[in-house]
């Protein structure tokens, strides 16, 4: 008898809780359905959410889905109320008080969950309303993402743009920009996730931009479609229509995946990704350079040099590639080749500062062996003659470096390393008249 009584009490408690949660959900539904809400409505809505939260934990799937929906819509309802007040209409900054990355994420998750549930159940309670909300809310979310980016909050901007894509899977452009912002934030794991999504979707970003010149302002403007542009041209407000093709972004996506894998230290995956990217865009020299960078980091200089040489075959006037070959040759103690590549880089680009600086360093390197020989000599007449010969050779080394160092300081007057080295050379050659102004410059 006692056990039956306990079961009856428990059943009554469950029944009361069920009725309570249904009442709470009815209250939320009633307030949400209002065309205009008041401060009192919003206060009641938020209080009801707090009461219902613990009640729906053990409830049915539909109760959980709709509670999640009402909770996610709370900041939106609050924002709509605030922005409907006359004194706030022009205060766009208020939006940031209610739109947060977390709020937007919850909104996206729960709107999509509600749409999926209603599609599965066949009962479209809020589907149309959600679709309207997405349409009206998207521009605000885009502006929010731009505002975050302007504050250099690139990761937050990336997440918001990805949320927009999650709301509207047709808007793949937002996913593309989300990936770019993630790179700017240096969150390479997040960027890789987004780029891989783009790759899986076969996103290309190809299209056409339709332009026409405004007759009044004489400024070229873009239009959403050819039809829209043609209406303005026929209306007489615009002229000089032109179309501009947007090239495929697919090679860039493949390349960025490879670069990110390199950055994350995943060399084997990076090599595979680069090979895939090169198949996608075989004439892209930058991909060869990217691949060479992987082998450089792996300290495989043979493959690195081969790839740089391959890139040079496709783009022989790339001063950076030639310079890099000079650096490799120098590191491998192939000094004749190093000098040849540095001079070639200067031939391509006469203002290539680093090539001049490296040539000076290359020239001055031979000083070390001369000093060692000089230090080993004694003070006998024969050895003093050898000393004078070596000293003359050392002076010639200094003189050979001067033109390159002077060129560096001419091209880059703030290059402290070059200035200090040039002062040392001038002093060694007793050219104090030239060293003095450089010393004064360093003090300043």
Model description:
The protein is mainly alpha-helical. The chain is 75% helix and 5% strand. It contains 20 helices and three strands. It has helices at 2-33, 39-55, 61-84, 95-98, 101-121, 127-150, 154-167, 172-184, 188-200, 226-235, 250-263, 267-280, 285-297, 301-314, 319-331, 335-348, 353-376, 381-411, 416-428, 432-443; strands spanning 207-214, 220-223, 238-246. Strands 2-1-3 form a three-stranded antiparallel beta sheet, covered by helices on one side. A hairpin with a 5-residue loop joins strand 1 (207-214) and strand 2 (220-223). The protein is elongated, with a radius of gyration of 35 Å. The chain starts with a helix and ends with a helix. Mean pLDDT is 84; it is low at 1-20.
Poorly predicted regions are: 1-20
End-to-end distance = 98 Å
Question: What is the ordering of alpha helices and beta strands?
Answer: HHHHHHHHHEEHEHHHHHHHHHH
Task: Give the neighbour order of strands across the main sheet.
Answer: 2-1-3
Structural class: mainly alpha
Give the rounded overall mean pLDDT: 84
Specify the helix fraction band: over 70%
β-strand number: 3
Give the count of helical stretches.
20
The largest β sheet comes out as: 3 strands, antiparallel
The backbone outline, from C-alpha atoms, is: elongated
Please compute the radius of gyration using only Cα atoms. Answer: 35 Å
Q: Percent of residues in beta strands?
A: under 5%
In short:
The protein is mainly alpha-helical. 75% of the residues lie in helices and 5% in strands.
């Amino acid at each position: 008898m006692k056990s039956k009584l306990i079961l009856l009490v428990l059943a009554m408690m469950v029944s009361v809780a069920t009725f309570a949660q249904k009442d709470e959900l009815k209250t939320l539904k009633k307030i949400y359905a209002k065309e205009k809400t008041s401060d009192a409505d919003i206060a009641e809505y938020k209080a009801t959410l707090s009461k219902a939260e613990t009640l729906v934990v053990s409830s049915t799937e539909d109760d959980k889905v709709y509670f999640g929906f009402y909770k996610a819509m709370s900041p939106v309802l609050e924002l709509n109320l605030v922005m409907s007040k006359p004194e706030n209409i022009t205060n766009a900054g208020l939006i940031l008080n209610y739109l947060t990355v977390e709020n937007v994420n919850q909104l996206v998750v729960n709107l999509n969950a509600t749409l999926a549930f209603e599609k599965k159940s066949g009962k479209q309670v809020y589907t149309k309303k959600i679709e309207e909300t997405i349409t009206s809310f998207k521009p605000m979310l885009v502006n929010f993402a731009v505002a975050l980016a302007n504050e250099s909050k690139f990761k937050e901007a990336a997440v918001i743009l990805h949320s927009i894509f999650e709301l509207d899977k047709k808007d793949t452009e937002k996913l593309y920009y989300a990936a770019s912002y993630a790179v700017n934030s240096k969150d390479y794991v997040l960027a890789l996730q987004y780029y891989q999504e783009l790759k899986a979707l076969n996103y290309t970003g190809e299209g056409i931009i339709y332009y026409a010149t405004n007759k009044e302002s004489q400024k070229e403007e873009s239009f959403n479609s050819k039809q829209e542009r043609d209406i303005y041209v026929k209306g007489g407000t615009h002229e000089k229509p032109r179309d501009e093709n947007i090239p495929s972004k697919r090679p860039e996506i493949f390349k960025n995946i490879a670069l990110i894998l390199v950055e994350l230290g995943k060399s084997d995956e990076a090599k595979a990704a680069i090979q895939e990217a090169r198949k996608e865009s075989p004439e892209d020299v930058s991909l060869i350079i990217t691949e060479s960078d992987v082998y450089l980091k792996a300290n495989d200089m043979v493959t690195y040099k081969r790839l740089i040489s391959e890139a040079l075959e496709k783009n022989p006037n790339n001063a950076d590639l030639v310079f890099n070959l000079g650096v490799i040759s120098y590191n491998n103690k192939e000094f004749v080749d190093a000098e040849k590549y540095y001079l070639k880089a200067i031939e391509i680009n006469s203002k290539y500062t680093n090539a001049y600086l490296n040539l000076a360093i290359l020239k001055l390197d031979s000083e070390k062996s001369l000093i060692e020989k000089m230090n080993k000599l004694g003070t006998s007449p024969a050895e003093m003659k050898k000393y004078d010969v070596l000293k003359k050779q050392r002076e010639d080394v200094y003189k050979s470096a001067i033109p390159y160092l002077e060129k560096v300081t001419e091209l880059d007057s703030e290059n402290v390393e070059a200035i200090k080295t040039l002062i040392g050379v001038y002093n060694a050659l007793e050219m104090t008249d030239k060293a003095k102004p450089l010393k004064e410059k360093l003090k300043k």
